[in-house]
Amino acid sequence: MTNSSVGSLANKCSLTNGKLYSGVKVMDICVENIWENFSQPLKSFIKRRVDNEQDVEDILQNVFYKIHHNISNLNETGKVQAWVYQITMHAIADYYRTRRYAFASYSEELPDAILSDVQEEEAANEEIAQCLKNMVQDLPEKYKQALILTEFQQLTRKELGERLGLSMSGAKSRVQRARGKLKEMLLDCCHLEFDRLGNVIDYQHKCSDCKYC
């Protein structure tokens, strides 16, 4: 989205929220314009963080439900983009919170042993994430570059292709191969245990002198 589109959008949303204009509420006009300007960028933003396509659609719908019901709280129209992305990040966080710990709202009643297990799972994921970051640095340059641009700088496959002069399928293939090589390095280094949602719950080093972990 360009700065000019954001500015135009801010102008369209600058009218008093809730005022009737030709029989239509101004807040509805504003939400419609936010949808037109942000729905595709937000979908791409969510897809880089959530694998399941149906979950992506559900989160996107949830985001616009929250936008519609909170549009009257948007006081500084020049900050529409920041406000929309803040709502989206919260929706993604809620998704993972619910997905991983459906019982989280009852955490104060959970036995200490269960809470300890949850904390250990989080620690295992963080440690593996650090191992992966170290391994990325040892990948061949073209695969290292592909992962850094997509996973850390959050470029889409299309943007990666444009940056590196690759076709869409070529960019997708390069990322897949890079992930495959990274997976091989990780499995050579560690034995991993996963829960049913794919989260790492435990791992053991296969050798004591792994230079990555």
Automatic annotation (TrEMBL):
Q: Name one GO biological process term.
A: DNA-templated transcription initiation
Q: Where does the RNA polymerase sigma-70 region domain start and stop, copy by copy? A: 37-100
Superkingdom of the source? Bacteria
Keywords from the UniProt entry: Sigma factor, Transcription, Transcription regulation
Instruction: State the signal peptide span.
Output: none
* Molecular function as annotated in GO: DNA binding; sigma factor activity
RNA polymerase sigma factor 70 region 4 type domain location: 130-182
Against SUPFAM superfamilies, the record matches this protein to: Sigma2 domain of RNA polymerase sigma factors (SSF88946), Sigma3 and sigma4 domains of RNA polymerase sigma factors (SSF88659)
InterPro entries, alphabetized: RNA_pol_sigma-70-like, RNA_pol_sigma-70_dom, RNA_pol_sigma-Z, RNA_pol_sigma70_r2, RNA_pol_sigma70_r4_t2, RNA_pol_sigma_r2, RNA_pol_sigma_r3/r4-like, WH-like_DNA-bd_sf
Record family assignment: Belongs to the sigma-70 factor family. ECF subfamily.
Q: What is this protein called?
A: RNA polymerase sigma factor SigZ
| Organism listed in the record | Sporotomaculum syntrophicum
